[in-house]
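Friendly challenge for the regulars: who can give me the structure tokens for this chain first? No prize, just bragging rights.
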Amino acid sequence: MQFGSVPTIAVDALSSGAFLLDVREDDEWAAGHAEGALHIPMSEFVARYGELTEAAPEDGKVYVLCRVGGRSAQVAQYLLQQGIDAVNVAGGMQAWEAAGRPVSDGRGGSGTVV
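First reply, four minutes later:
Bragging rights claimed.
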């Protein structure tokens, strides 16, 4: 699946060990996120790019999430231009939650997607 020229994957096609990058803003992240995802807001992404390169698996894919898929497609496109194997997650965290995947509030409770 493609989103423009950006490779895209459906939530149900993600494997459990996939490396997730959440580019939503801090308030969205705090309300609910995928456990284990790396959080770097899109608004801070270029300045914090090194955090991704340190955390991402070598020669592995980076699956980029936002709320519905627009911001993540932009970040995935940027990563592809930097030579990183990035894939946009279609439907973002809304699709993640709708698919019954766990959403965490980061404090041991159930989160919600805002």
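The chain has a mean pLDDT of 94. The longest helix spans residues 70-81. Your move, everyone else.
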